[in-house]
Specification:
It contains seven helices and 31 strands. By secondary structure, it is mainly beta.
Amino acid sequence: MRFVHSTLILILGLIALPAMAQPTFSVDSQGPTATVPLLDSFVLAPITEGDILTNGLPGPLGPNPIAAGPLPPPGIEVGGAPGALGAVPGGLGILPGACLELDALSYGRDAGTTLHFSVDEFATGVAGPAGPPEVLSEGSAGTLEASADVFRYLGLLAVLVPPPVIVGNTAYSDGDGIAPSGLGGVGLFEPNPPTAGVVPDAGDNLDAIDLDTTFADLAGPIYFSLDSAFAEPLEGVPINCGTAAANLVSSADVLVVPAPGGAPLVAIPAALLGLDVGGVGTDDLDALAWDDADSSGTLTLGDTILFSVRRGSAVIGALDTVLGVPIEPGDVLTAPVGGPGFAPGIVVTAEALGLATARSLTAGPFGSDELNALDVISEEYGDAPDGIPSCQGGVACVPVSTYPTVAGTVNAVPGRTSPTHTSTAPVGGDYFLGTAPTVEPAADQPCCDWVPPETVCDEDDSGAVLCLDPTCTYGMAIAGPMAVVTCGLSWGAGQFGPPGGVPPGAAIPAAGFPPLTTPLPSFWVVPVTMGAAETPPLAGRFLNVAVDHDFTGTFGDIAGEWPITDAPVAFLPGLVQIFPSAAFPVSVTVTTTVGPPPLFLVTSTWSVDGLWSRFTVGPEPIALAPPFAAALWDGSGALGGYDRGETEDWYVVGDPAIPQGPGNDCNGNLIPDIADIAVGGLADLDGDGVPDVCLYVPAMSPTGILILVSLMLMLVIAVIATRRWRLT
């Protein structure tokens, strides 16, 4: 593949609004949004508890991102009633009972590694390792706002954690987008004190959620569940809407509308989920995340389905078929091991989520916490340390680094958060750093935890080249786990050893790693790949790079730490664009030896003083987002993150530089050789850091030189002898 320098091929695109994670959701029948009722922001229709809603921001009628409040009422994307108005008219065809309540939602593509959820107004939560904001701080024992918020589970779905172990949660989005949380919101009412039998409640209860909805999702199929008629134990009267019974289905069935305007059908009957063993409508499926992997429209082998049940469901207290413990209303469940007739299995326990349970004797005055909204998405994070010590600076560790990395970070400027991305596939219209996306489902990975082989950090990407001189003759490719490395190798007090340990035959310096010298101008060469499915014209894609070159644990505290600012990405789909950054200082030592032609012997040693850097390619022109016009970007992202792109954080310590031959572009393709190798443009099969197509003899020892010269002389003698033999 041929890569062309961005300054030669750049096609400038129009600046578009950032495309961010787009939530759709519903509310229950007791909050003010549905009971007043409010007129929605799209078609001025009264909002009901059966509607699929989104944030009512001005602009297109498709799903809108979370945003800072105060906010207008939500907009109706698809109404619940037959023929309902909305951004997509036609409705879900739901017939009302006492009212009309949709209480679980999915578009059949809930695949990923991170789980998000909401709770009702009675939830208290328990203390988790992340601390506030979490369910405990936002719930009925805190600010009384948890029922309209969304929280992110801090664990991974692939890890089964038995009770009573707490993994914890952190706030992901807020109901109204107004302090104290400081996170983006969706236009709901807060706070919502726990009350029983009082309508309307003071605040809203977010009752179903999908965080990465596209406009195409709203065209169908749309999967959902309807509420039961049995009373909520803590609410008493009035009873629930009884919408499922009014539609002649069970409140534990998963229903589907193939397209708005149709009538709901049963897609997954309750029995396949281990529900309604006590009779139709005895269980209430209260939250849903389903990945219909084969697009069959029903539950088949290879699909992933997660759900929860409402307080008062008959299955609560039954022993689950995975852990063998009593089921709680805060557990994340899946289809039963053993098939229909058996109880559901627990995938994530309520305790692991940071919720209170009777099972672990943590339930508060309202009993066990209830999970009533659920979604699974694939998120991509950076992994620079956020609020924890960072081994950097070469001589000493920074006590607390404040790179805005984790979801719900407190280290970003007001109105912003960590840069996260919810779509990182190499196809499907994405764009990413390097030659392939690397997804970090967990953020805030302490560098001392980076022990190869690493699967959740950015160290394995082939994403960039750090050039140590203006010609890129000396530099290092970020091309594997030996480039961005652990800080656990100590050669002295607080100093770093070389990646992978001491090179064979090398002496360990008594004082540690090579000393720092005068900082030299350096720069990044960054490749960005456009997904093959991108559709021109390409606009609204920008690359930004931050460098903490003063080693303070903060991006953007001094000038010069934003060497690539809003570089437009507008290359052709399936190809790569190369971006050079502005120069920034980095501590290096370079030694060069050039022998007589044809042998150019180049050696190089250098050290970098614990350099953190952040690379974000996304839809946002950050310099247009106050307060960053002063060229001091803190590394943060827009509220709600982005639905495309990628963020990578690289921690660079001393590593042998890649030697280069005479000149830095031996094949004359206008790309530095070191960049050609890093992005796969030129092969380097012998691993000497020099493109194999170039006639260059790498650095050799004196013995190697003598051997090579001897071989060349032997070859010359052999040629002469052959010619003489032929002449005779």
